[in-house]
Write a structure and sequence with these properties.
Elements (H helix, E strand, L loop, with lengths): L2 H9 L5 H9 L18 E6 L13 H10 L4 E4 L4 E4 L2 E6 L5 E6 L13 H12 L21 H5 L9 E5 L2 E5 L7 H4 L16 H6 L7 E3 L8 E6 L12 E6 L3 H9 L5 E3 L5 H8 L7 E2 L5 E14 L9 H10 L2 H8 L5 E2 L23 H11 L11 E7 L4 H14 L3 E7 L1 H10 L4 E7 L6 H8 L13 H11 L4 H18 L2 E13 L6 E2 L14
Helix pairs in contact: 10-12, 15-16, 16-17
Length: 550
């Protein structure tokens, strides 16, 4: 047994607790070992995405940007959903000390960036320092620095008190050492996030140039620049030190509207596309349903696979009206999740009574007790705290702010109608995704909608980013000192069972505050064209284009 496997039970989730759950999500076959010669070397995969926030690791934070970064960058580790375990990527192996405060990653030999520079330990020091350093981009600080907030020296660098991240070092070209301020046994999972990719020296020369044309170390490289709102073109990196992609290029076609994108797919202009809900049944008939929900093959091109993700209402907990937990609970109780899943999604979604989705180790049914439909209970709460006036009005009015692509308008309209049934007046506020996300980030909203897909499939990746005070993805601006302390304590817990139990207790505490409102758990509804011989889309909705065959 290799060193990597020997240390697996200590360094990662126990052997793994998450593994057995996630293998049920994606027990399918990927052919990552195939070479370019096995496929059509001149093929270009044309992929629909919405406009990303960033394709630079510095601020890679949502599914669109992650989809692109995943093709261009190899991080230290990666999660293999088929095996249900963390596997090497840019690192060939890693070890930890006994208390989970120091991790040593040994890098693979012979890896290069797309510009020919070597991928060495210093490139990881550079990338992680760049992520946290406030001088990297004073106009737009990264929203994802919290991923390494436990690294020694993080606070000093983030505060601008120093130019170095003292907890990371490169003793030699192939050895990258990470020292944490507190124990965190799950840290190698964190190291798989695209924000923690290595960057070459050129990344420090011109932020805007690198932002639109990042130089990575993955199987595909930029072919020109990102044309905002139009396209991102990649081509195969011929000097990639790993299994070469079978296809020659990727064209990410940016569309703000899924319906429009699907029409382009039907016209033969796209090879990979989300399927609008209204088209799911006909798509199954036209393209055939995948056997496992994750693998596209000829005649079985439509995917309906469970995702490690949740759709929820984000609520501004600092809003003068919505800071009241009783109102937030009433909102949650008033929403008929099953009706949304059945009528809008034709049963391809599952009502959520937890912020943690099934398949994540530690998941429990119905933990968020007020996340189920109970109109009478909602009315009772409102009658107690927001009684109707002589005209029958409760004077509870707020905005639901959302991006209009996909089915979001249908969902928000259904929620608006449910809230009206209990005397709450919610007005719809529709905008473009990037603008809406900026408003969520700045707190310039009342309620909105978000989805969270696991960056790495552990409970901590849902609870810490979304609910720890001040984190960039804590769009609800929720702050509870008791929860913060409990999350930090859980992260310091080295024993896997004890850590999961601690996180389950934190989750229950958060649910009592109802800072957000879980709505449903996702399935991906995705389709590949007749040109696709084989392609795998994992439960985090990443398309494994390196192994795609066309």
């Amino acid at each position: 047994m290799s060193e990597f496997l020997k240390i697996g039970r200590r360094t990662f989730l126990k052997g793994s607790a998450a593994a057995s759950a996630l293998m049920a999500l994606a027990a399918c076959k990927k052919d990552d070992g195939a070479t370019a010669e096995a496929g059509t070397e001149g093929a270009t995969a044309k992929v629909y995405i919405n406009n990303p926030v960033s394709i630079d690791p510095y601020n890679c934070q949502e599914s669109e940007g992650t989809q692109v970064c995943y093709q261009m960058f190899d991080c230290l580790t990666d999660f293999d959903y088929e095996k249900g375990e963390l596997v090497p990527a840019a690192a060939e192996s890693w070890t930890s000390n006994d208390d989970g405060t120091e991790f040593t990653f040994t890098l693979k030999e012979g890896c290069k960036f797309h510009n020919g520079d070597p991928v060495d330990a210093e490139s990881f020091v550079r990338g992680w320092t760049r992520l946290v350093d406030p001088k990297t981009n004073t106009d737009s600080p990264s929203a994802v620095t919290y991923h390494i907030s436990m690294v020694d020296g993080y606070d000093a660098l983030a505060a601008g008190e120093t130019d170095v991240l003292s907890g990371v070092s490169a003793p030699d070209d192939k050895t990258f050492v990470v020292k944490l301020a507190t124990p965190y046994a799950d840290f190698p999972y964190v190291a798989s996030h695209p924000a923690l990719a290595p960057v070459p020296a050129v990344a420090l020369e011109d932020f805007n140039a690198y932002f639109t044309a990042p130089v990575g170390n993955g199987p595909f490289m930029m072919d020109g620049k990102w044309v905002d709102g139009q396209y991102i073109n990649l081509k195969r990196f011929e000097d990639y030190n790993g299994d070469k992609p079978k296809i020659a290029a990727i064209q990410f076609n940016i569309q703000k509207d899924m319906e429009t994108a699907y029409k382009e797919f039907q016209a033969g202009n796209y090879d990979f596309c989300d399927v609008p809900t209204a088209q799911i049944a006909s798509a199954q008939d036209t393209y055939g349903l995948s056997d496992d929900g994750y693998t596209i093959t000829p005649g079985k091109q439509m995917l309906l696979g469970d995702e490690a993700s949740v759709y929820y209402l984000t609520i501004n907990n600092t809003d003068p009206l919505l800071k009241d937990v009783n109102l937030r609970k009433a909102i949650s109780l008033a929403i008929n999740r099953q009706a949304i899943c059945d009528t809008i999604f034709s049963g391809t979604r599952t009502p959520a009574a937890n912020i943690i989705p099934p398949g994540i180790a530690g998941y429990e049914d119905d933990v968020w007790a007020d996340s189920h439909y109970d109109k009478d209970a909602a009315v009772a709460l409102l009658d107690q705290y927001y009684p109707a006036d002589a005209d029958g009005k409760r004077n509870v009015t707020f905005q639901l702010s959302f991006n209009g692509d996909g089915n979001h308008k249908d969902i928000m309209t259904a929620i608006q109608a449910d809230l009206a049934e209990v005397g709450i007046d919610a007005t719809l506020d529709q905008g473009e995704w990037a603008a809406i996300l900026d408003r969520y980030q700045s707190g310039d909203y009342q309620t909105g909608r978000l989805g969270w897909i696991a960056d790495y499939p552990i409970m901590d990746n849902f609870l810490y980013p979304l609910f720890f005070t001040g984190n960039g993805d804590n769009r609800s601006l929720y702050s509870n000192a008791e929860v913060d302390a409990a999350l930090e304590a859980a992260r310091r817990t080295v024993d896997d069972d004890a850590r999961i139990t601690a996180l389950q207790e934190v989750n229950k505490k958060i649910s009592e505050d109802m800072p957000v409102v879980p709505i449903f758990f996702y399935k991906h509804t995705y389709v590949g064209s007749d040109k696709v011989k084989s392609a795998y889309v994992d439960p985090s909705k990443k398309i494994h284009l390196k192994s795609a065959d066309m």
